[in-house]
């Protein structure tokens, strides 16, 4: 079947699927208001989808992004998984499509930024409302960091020693590049920066330095150290509390930087 849904302040979405082999309930549910809320969320946080149409096509193997459309396998998946796949593949249109970063040279700016936006969006679409929707990415990152196999994020996509290292670097570490940056410069400057990045660099193939300059301007902070440590080196962000001892009028807490990647620390005493 071929169905069309008019998104308010957004594109006409075309759904193309075979009711006999697709999980039809998923496709029907997606149309209710998930599509509208998806395009609204993306416009509010990352930029407005600029084309008049978008197609979701049953087919391919798993999910794959294409300009103005995505192929997804329609059957068998739970609705949230099905929607997450759509959100991920569609969101590529913002990063590899419209901003158009170089996927071979900087895979983390495509898969990572897409994964970051996907996790933020799914947290709202499915009303999980967790404080940090990127915890799975953190777990993958820690797994890679402790495996001894890490390679710099700046490694071109087809030059990694292991596919697993490419995957965790590009998807998880790429998403956490944004989440850690948000931690450093604060949510408001970060949110402004993501929109400014979209407005300033769409259709212009930005490099990592172009992105960084936007964030430096929005935050009024120098951030070259962060990009260098994060992208070009394999040092770890790892802090611990090494000592807690009572003193006359309170307690002394000693922090220890165990990894070589320096980060500002926000300390909450409860
Ligand atoms: Zn992807």
Describe the structure in your own words.
- This protein is α/β, with parallel strands linked by helices and 270 residues long.
- It has 2 domains: 2-99, Neutral Protease, domain 2; 107-232, Neutral Protease, domain 2 (Orthogonal Bundle).
- It has 8 helices and 7 strands.
- The strands form 2 sheets. It has a 5-stranded mixed beta sheet with strand order 1-2-3-5-4, covered by helices on one side. A two-stranded antiparallel ribbon has the order 6-7.
- The mean pLDDT is 96.
Distinct small molecules: zinc ion
Share in helix: 40-55%
Mean pLDDT: 96
Number of domains: 2
Q: Please give the CATH architecture of the largest domain.
A: Orthogonal Bundle
The main sheet orders its strands as 1-2-3-5-4
How far apart are the first and last residues' alpha carbons, in Å?
57 Å
Estimated share of beta-strand residues: 15-25%
The total of beta strands comes to 7
Protein structure class: alpha/beta
One letter per element, helices H and strands E, the order comes to: EEHEEEHHHHHHHEE
- CATH homology-level superfamily of the largest domain: Neutral Protease Domain 2
Computed over alpha carbons, the radius of gyration is 20 Å
Overall form: globular
* CATH class wording of the largest domain: Mainly Alpha
Number of helices: 8
Chain-wise SSE layout:
Layout: E1 2-6, E2 12-16, H1 24-45, E3 53-58, E4 63-66, E5 69-72, H2 79-99, H3 107-125, H4 135-145, H5 163-185, H6 187-201, H7 208-219, H8 224-232, E6 239-247, E7 250-257
Parallel strand pairs: 2-3, 3-5
Antiparallel strand pairs: 1-2, 4-5, 6-7
Helix pairs in contact: 1-2, 1-3, 2-3, 3-5, 4-5, 5-6, 6-7
